[in-house]
Structures are given as structure tokens and as C-alpha cells.
Design a protein that fits this description.
Helix content is 38%, strand content 21%. It has 549 residues and is α/β, with parallel strands linked by helices. The protein has 3 domains: 187 residues, inorganic pyrophosphatase (n-terminal core), CATH 3.90.1640; 163 residues, Udp-n-acetylmuramoylalanyl-d-glutamate--2,6- Diaminopimelate Ligase, Chain: A, domain 1 (3-Layer(aba) Sandwich); 113 residues, Roll (Diaminopimelate Epimerase, Chain A, domain 1). Strands 3-2-1-16-17-18 form a 6-stranded parallel sheet. A 5-stranded mixed sheet has the order 7-12-11-10-9, with helices on both faces. A 5-stranded mixed sheet has the order 19-20-21-22-23, sandwiched between helices. β11, α9 and β12 form a beta-alpha-beta unit.
Length: 549
């Protein structure tokens, strides 16, 4: 069996657009082609919008799985797969299992569900604290356990039956004296004296244990069968039997089964650390989401834990990255935006180019590494470029972006205008969505000089579509700023064909900021910005330049 590959997640920002999703898929594919030591998996950090879903559906591609948080979880720890034991096994067998597996805690399971746990200290306590001669019966000890513990042979009786009445005693006296202290249902440990064996059976003992491998006569066997007395023969002497017999009790009697501290595979390690610190237990059971037992972890496992490995595409700001990014090991960042607030613990491969789309950079990396661009990969990369550059209309679009997109369109065998039109049409078809869904579909937050603001954007092919969206989104913006920890919110309703944006706003000084940034006056309840269609290259720089003054 080969070494298990470590997973590396390739993920875009929290409100993924077509570039973010397509770039993650294509870059994960490239990394897999270049490196078979690790498993690269495309993920998404948020909901897939209608435009991107259209692209994936048209190409027959399943969307990446949702990655909510990249903090380390129990599933990222090396879980010790200690096999669960039956609650019917003896203390001695449990001890041997722990010794053989080099563990101090044994999980007890029933039909793969955790029934309890028992530790070496629990077993030690059972030896030190037991003075009751009836404890063997109280624990409902199966004769099979007694046979295993004493290396014994069943002479008369049923090994699946239980010793559940009476006390345990040693017949050291003569038969006359034995009659005064043996009671019905007792278990009697004795030697090879025929008279003593006979006396115990006549006194209605439930079981006699004959020590030192002494022969049991036919008469004793017959009488035991008639009286319903179990007869066991062991090679050990009386002292050894007396010392070992309590070890035959089932662990069910001593296991801890109430208020068990268990962890789930999805629990975050920073949470379980606190729980572990408060308890003296060495080991803790791990369950799956259905409550099935998986294995055990200890504090030591946390010390050897590795953080999740991730590659970020199409962003480099902490407030846009997947939750818990500060706890992950960032291996690479591939982006085309301004440098943001993200910090890394160690140096990373960071490729940032002033191009219109991350997918253009990834195309370059395919060519640089001589990796074939398949028809599907070409279609994904082309879709990303057309989306991010608004079919070459955005000022972020470079001549190289257009050149790459046209080359990819030939490989993918798609008509650029038809493909882009259908893609944008799907993206602006928001009739089935509520205001909140529309608002957060393409929304990013920014901060400068202790001022934070959010900017959302919807692109459409006609002004009529944008007018419908405005009616639904405008009332929600007031509620959104109340929920979010930002000072201002702006929303771009961008007309792709008309190459203009209607800018909605809410928040203190938001109106004044727009007036100063673009030298325009308000048109009703919004601003009309002709020629402004790019959030990244036109809106954000203009707003930030005023905030820095």
C-alpha cells in the first residue's frame, strides 16, 4: 500500500465569481499533472453564482466542494484506530489487548457505537478496591471468561452461562466445616479431595473450580450434572486461582459509560484543546457524523498535527479568503489584484501580474510547463477571461488577455460572442433569487485608514434587467449595513453593452466620497458613472485615493 497523499486545497475567494472557480479547477489540474506527491483539490469558499453554474453545466463539470473553514479539525489529526472491544470480555483480556496495542485506554463498542471506555487505571482500581466476595456475581461473569482467565477446561456445564448469584470462597477446611459456610449458588475453589468436591455439590454450589489439574471422577461429574453445578478444571494452584479469578469479570461492570467526552471528525482542534486541557484523560474517542466509533486521539496527537495546506487563487486579502486562513499553511498565491492584507508565516510562491484575469496567468503556467490544455480546460479558462474582462470591455483587459482568450476559444471550439452572451444572460437571470442572495453574489470588503467598506456588483446585458435588480437590492442595502461591520456599502449595476454603471450607496459620507472621486452629481437616488465598469481598476482605486487624502 503506497504512502497516503496529503491534500492541498486550491480555493478562490468567499464570493466566488467565474474566474475564481474556473481558475481553481484549472490550477488544481495543472498541479496534479506536475506533482504526484500531493493531491490537489479544487474547492470553493462560497456559493456558486448563476453565471458560473451555466459554464459548469454547459461543460458537464461538477462544481467544487464547499470549503467553509481551513482551521485544523480532528480529521486532520492522526487518529489511532484502536479496535473497539466487546463489553463482555474479561478484565484480563482487556489488559492484554491494551498491552499488545500499547494503549492505556480501550474503547468498548456495540454494533460500532461507543458503549464506554476503560483505562488501565480503571482496571488497577478494580483490583485495589474490591473486597466484596459477591462481586463476581454482581458483575454477571460469564463462565467463558473464567475459563479464559484461569486457562481452564469446562468439565460440566455451559460456558455461555453466567455466574450471577452467590459468593466466591476457597474450600480450605474439611468437609464437616465446609458445610457451615458454603451456601446455595456459591462458587467454590478447591483441590483434588473427592469429599470436598462432593460436599460443595451437595450444598448446592453453582460452580466448583478444581485446581492443579486434578482429575474429576465420573461420580462427581454425574452428580454435578444432576444438581446443575458447573465444574471447571484449571492447571493453576489455589492461590493463583484466587488471585486471578476477579480478572474474569466483564469490563462492562467497570467501564465508564456516562458523560463520556467524545469528539467528532469535524470538530476544530482549537476547541478540543480547551476540553483536553480541563480533563485528565489520556485518550479521547472520535466519532463520525453518524455517531459511529472511528478511533482514539490524545494530546500527543495534537503536537504532531499539520495545518491544512492551501493555494489561493484570484485573491490575496484576508477578509476575502476562506475562514481560518490564518491557521492554514499557504503554499502559493496566484492573483491579478492589488496587494492586500494577507500575511504568511513562511515564504510562499506568489505570482501576481497586472492582467485582466487570473485564468490568463494560469494559461501562461500551462504553457511554461508544457502541460497540454485540453478542450475542457480551455473552455474553463476562456470563460473566466470573458467574465472578468466583460468580453474585453473592462479597462482591466489587456491585449494579452484577449489574445489568450481567442486562442483558448479555438482549442475549446466555442464562439466567443455566443458563449459570452449566454453566460452573461444566465448571470443576470436573478428572478428566482432573494435580495440577500443577489447582494452577496459578487460582494467584497475593503479597508483603508480604519475605514471599511463593501462593494457588490451585478453585470447585465440590458438596462431593463438592471432596473429590476435595483428595485430588489436598494431596500436590502440599509439592512445589510446594519448587520455588517462596515462604514459604507456601494453596489454597482453594470451595463455591459452600454459600458456604464449605476452606483447605489449607503452609509455616512458615502455620497460625498463618490462626488469627490468621480466629480459627478447624484442622479436621483444613485450615481451614473459612464465608462466605469470595473470594480478593481476603476471604482476601488478612485475611492481609495480620496480616502487617503
Amino acid at each position: 500500500m503506497g504512502k497516503r497523499k496529503q491534500k492541498v486545497f486550491v480555493v478562490g475567494h468567499r464570493n466566488p465569481d467565474t474566474d475564481s472557480i474556473c481558475s481553481a479547477i484549472c490550477y488544481a489540474n495543472l498541479k496534479c499533472a506536475l506533482n504526484d506527491e500531493e493531491e490537489y483539490i479544487a474547492m470553493r469558499a462560497g456559493h456558486i453564482n448563476e453565471e458560473t453554474q451555466y459554464v459548469l453545466d454547459r461543460l458537464g463539470i461538477q462544481p467544487p466542494l464547499y470549503l467553509k473553514d481551513v482551521r485544523t479539525q480532528v480529521r486532520d489529526i492522526e487518529i489511532r484506530e484502536t479496535e473497539g472491544a466487546s463489553q463482555d470480555i474479561s478484565l484480563k483480556k482487556a489488559w492484554n489487548l491494551m498491552k499488545d496495542s500499547n494503549v492505556v485506554t480501550l474503547p468498548i463498542t456495540e454494533k460500532n457505537k461507543l458503549a464506554g471506555i476503560i483505562s488501565i487505571s480503571d482496571i488497577a482500581t478494580s483490583y485495589m478496591d474490591v473486597y466484596d466476595s459477591k462481586i463476581l456475581a454482581t458483575a454477571k461473569t460469564k463462565y467463558k471468561n473464567i475459563l479464559e482467565t484461569l486457562d481452564a477446561t469446562l468439565v460440566v456445564g455451559d460456558e455461555e452461562a453466567f455466574f450471577d448469584k452467590g459468593k466466591v470462597l476457597i474450600a480450605a477446611a474439611n468437609p464437616d466445616l465446609m458445610e457451615t459456610y458454603i451456601e446455595e449458588h456459591d462458587l467454590v475453589i478447591l483441590g483434588n479431595r473427592y469429599e470436598s468436591q462432593l460436599c460443595a455439590i451437595e450444598m448446592k454450589a453453582d460452580c466448583i473450580i478444581v485446581c492443579e489439574g486434578a482429575a474429576v471422577s465420573i461420580t462427581i461429574k454425574k452428580m454435578a450434572e444432576e444438581k446443575g453445578c458447573t465444574v471447571i478444571s484449571t492447571p493453576h494452584d489455589t492461590y493463583t486461582v484466587a488471585r486471578l479469578i476477579n480478572q474474569s469479570m466483564p469490563i462492562a461492570h467497570f467501564m465508564r459509560k456516562d458523560d463520556l467526552i467524545t469528539f467528532r471528525m469535524d470538530d476544530f482542534t482549537d476547541t478540543i484543546k480547551e476540553t483536553m486541557a480541563k480533563k485528565r484523560h489520556r485518550d479521547f474517542p472520535v466519532l463520525d457524523k453518524y455517531g459511529n466509533y472511528i478511533g482514539m486521539i490524545s494530546r500527543r496527537n495534537l503536537l504532531n498535527m499539520s495545518p491544512k495546506k492551501i493555494i489561493l487563487v484570484d485573491h490575496n486579502e484576508k477578509n476575502q479568503a476562506v475562514e481560518g486562513v490564518e491557521n492554514a499553511e499557504i503554499l502559493e498565491i496566484i492573483d491579478h489584484h492589488r496587494l492586500g492584507s494577507l500575511e504568511t508565516i513562511s515564504p510562499v510562491f506568489f505570482r501576481n501580474q497586472p492582467l485582466g484575469c487570473t485564468a490568463t496567468i494560469i494559461y501562461q503556467m500551462y504553457r511554461e510547463n508544457n502541460v497540454e490544455i485540453t478542450k475542457t480546460i480551455a473552455a474553463l479558462l476562456c470563460a473566466a477571461i470573458l467574465s472578468d474582462t466583460l468580453m474585453y470591455r473592462s479597462p482591466t483587459c489587456t491585449a494579452y488577455d484577449k489574445q489568450v482568450a481567442e486562442e483558448l476559444a479555438k482549442i475549446a471550439e466555442i464562439q466567443v460572442e455566443e458563449f459570452a452572451r449566454e453566460m452573461f444572460k444566465a448571470g443576470s437571470n436573478l428572478k428566482s433569487k432573494g435580495p440577500e442572495e443577489i447582494f452577496y453574489q459578487d460582494f467584497k470588503t475593503f479597508s483603508i485608514n480604519d475605514v471599511s467598506f463593501g462593494v457588490g456588483q451585478i453585470n447585465a446585458m440590458t438596462r431593463e434587467e438592471l432596473a429590476e435588480i435595483k428595485e430588489r437590492i436598494k431596500p436590502y442595502m440599509e439592512a445589510a449595513i446594519g448587520k455588517m461591520s462596515v462604514n459604507m456599502i456601494f453596489f454597482m449595476l453594470t451595463d455591459i453593452i452600454g459600458e456604464s454603471t449605476e452606483l447605489l450607496f449607503v452609509g455616512n459620507n458615502a455620497e460625498e466620497l463618490i462626488e469627490n472621486a468621480f466629480s459627478v452629481s447624484r442622479d436621483g437616488d444613485s450615481f451614473r458613472l459612464d465608462g466605469v465598469i470595473s470594480r478593481k481598476k476603476q471604482l476601488i482605486p478612485a475611492l481609495m485615493s480620496i480616502m487617503q487624502q
